[in-house]
Specification:
The protein is an alpha/beta fold. The protein has helices at about 20-25, 80-95, 110-115, 150-160, and strands spanning about 10-15, 35-40, 65-70, 95-105, 105, 125-130, 135, 145-150, 160-165, 180-190.
Length: about 190
């Protein structure tokens, strides 16, 4: 991004892990249009002592501020009420016709069949939260969560985002490589 964005563009990064933010601030200190924010949100996997809930968090940005939002390997570690709020916040901060790329472990017919016969590296053996998702570890749900595609389509529509394309990763298909997540491409149309 440092070679793509000029002074008219910028990058705003949010994370719940202090060490990640510290690294980014140090690495990109010479780029005044790159800013990073530590947010002390609770997550059983990454920030178990977090002071606030992601379901209540408001992004520190004005409405209609961003052309592009990227959420990489975040929703794979968030429970549904947190995702609901984040999708609402993404819709709020995105400009009309803005694009969002988010990665997930998606549950559809193919991935569910591969889970059932044990062909995925993450087993997602446990139903969680009214069958909207499955988790790999019921004691720490945020370790890895797979979401039902229909549920995500509902959430996106609820918040004014249209899913334009899904690119399935390899975690639940073909080569069954563990960390190739599914891509959900959406756009703000209202």
């Amino acid at each position: 991004m440092t070679t793509f964005l000029n002074s008219e563009g910028g990058y705003e990064g949010i994370d719940i892990t202090r060490e990640v933010i510290n690294w980014c601030e140090e690495r990109y200190q010479n780029y005044s249009n790159f800013r990073f924010y530590f947010v002390d949100l609770h997550n059983e996997r990454y920030n178990p002592r977090g002071a606030s809930n992601a379901s209540d968090y408001r992004f520190p940005f004005p409405d209609n501020a961003f052309d592009v939002v990227f959420v990489g390997s975040v929703f794979t570690h968030m429970v549904s009420e947190d995702i609901d709020n984040y999708i609402a916040e993404i819709a709020r901060v995105m400009k009309l016709r803005g694009v969002c790329l988010a990665t997930y472990f998606l549950l559809d017919t193919v991935s569910r069949e591969n889970i059932a016969v044990g062909l995925t590296s993450l087993k997602f053996a446990y139903e969680f939260n009214s069958q909207t998702c499955r988790v790999d570890n019921p004691d720490i749900p945020e370790a890895a969560i797979a979401y039902d595609e229909r549920f995500l389509r509902y959430l996106y529509g609820k918040h004014g985002l249209i899913i334009e394309r899904i690119v399935h990763g390899e975690w639940g298909r073909k080569g069954l490589v563990p960390h190739w997540q599914d891509e959900v491409w959406s756009r703000k149309l209202r």
